[in-house]
């Protein structure tokens, strides 16, 4: 048996196994140190460099929506990351994400074929109202992945909790998750409604989706 695994180049990964069992049992998983301090700092620098270049644009919901309407729903600014034009930190980011995707496909046959990731900045006072991550006419988003790039000094009082609205035996149970640096939250895009509470301090992240065909 071990010979067979060797042939398939398969090495069991405890962190990924935890993610899989969390997703199966509770539809979300929180990984505390998916990225280490240096990786977070490098990704945060990359994000801030993009911001300095004015590369961010106001996040839009769907398309051609009145900007004032948009602002009442979400106030973040985003920048889509092109995997073919990455710097060192972003290259490392995609190595880790790709390794997770390979693992999910090998062990759970999830059929993840595509991914899309963007940086997000939530300026002070902004939020993202309760929503679901799949579009009406497109249900290819399977897993949502949120990676927090805030400074090490981030406090709960800074706000910006991600709240997942879980359903436990027909009862809604909100689960608040603080955006601490290095933390990655993975959840079922098609099932879990969620929101970002108003932030009191600029909040930084990378958000993305693992998608099927
Ligand atoms: O930043 C977060 O915690 C979640 C962001 C989110 O829900 C989204 O971009 O769809
Ligand atoms: Fe979302």
From TrEMBL:
GO terms for biological process: cellular response to hypoxia. It comes from the Bacteria. One of its GO terms (molecular function) is L-ascorbic acid binding. Its cofactor is L-ascorbate. InterPro entries: HIF_prolyl_hydroxylases, Oxoglu/Fe-dep_dioxygenase_dom, Pro_4_hyd_alph, Pro_4_hyd_alph_FE2OG_OXY. Residues 108-212 form the Fe2OG dioxygenase domain. PANTHER family: EGL NINE HOMOLOG-RELATED, HIF PROLYL HYDROXYLASE, ISOFORM C. It holds the Pfam family 2OG-FeII_Oxy_3. This is Oxidoreductase. The keyword Hydrolase does not apply. It comes from Mangrovimonas yunxiaonensis. Keywords: Dioxygenase, Iron, Metal-binding, Oxidoreductase, Vitamin C.
């Amino acid at each position: 048996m071990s010979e067979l695994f060797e042939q398939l180049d398969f090495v069991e990964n405890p962190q990924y196994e935890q993610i899989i069992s969390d997703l199966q049992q509770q539809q979300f998983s929180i990984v505390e140190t998916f990225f280490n301090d240096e990786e977070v700092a490098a990704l945060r620098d990359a994000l801030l460099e993009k911001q300095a270049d004015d590369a961010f644009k106001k996040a839009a919901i769907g398309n051609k929506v009145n900007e004032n309407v948009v602002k009442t729903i979400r106030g973040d600014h985003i920048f889509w990351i092109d995997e073919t034009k990455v710097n060192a930190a972003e290259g490392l980011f995609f190595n880790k994400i790709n390794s997770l995707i390979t693992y999910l496909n090998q062990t759970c046959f999830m059929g993840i074929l595509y991914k899309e990731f963007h940086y997000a900045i939530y300026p002070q006072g902004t939020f993202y109202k309760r929503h679901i991550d799949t579009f009406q006419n497109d249900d290819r988003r399977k897993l949502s992945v949120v990676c927090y790039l805030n400074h090490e000094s981030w406090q709960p009082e800074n706000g910006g909790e991600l709240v997942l609205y879980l359903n436990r035996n027909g009862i809604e149970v909100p689960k608040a998750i603080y955006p601490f640096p290095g933390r990655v939250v993975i959840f079922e895009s098609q099932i879990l409604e969620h929101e970002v509470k108003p932030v009191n301090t600029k909040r930084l992240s990378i958000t993305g989706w693992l998608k099927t065909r």
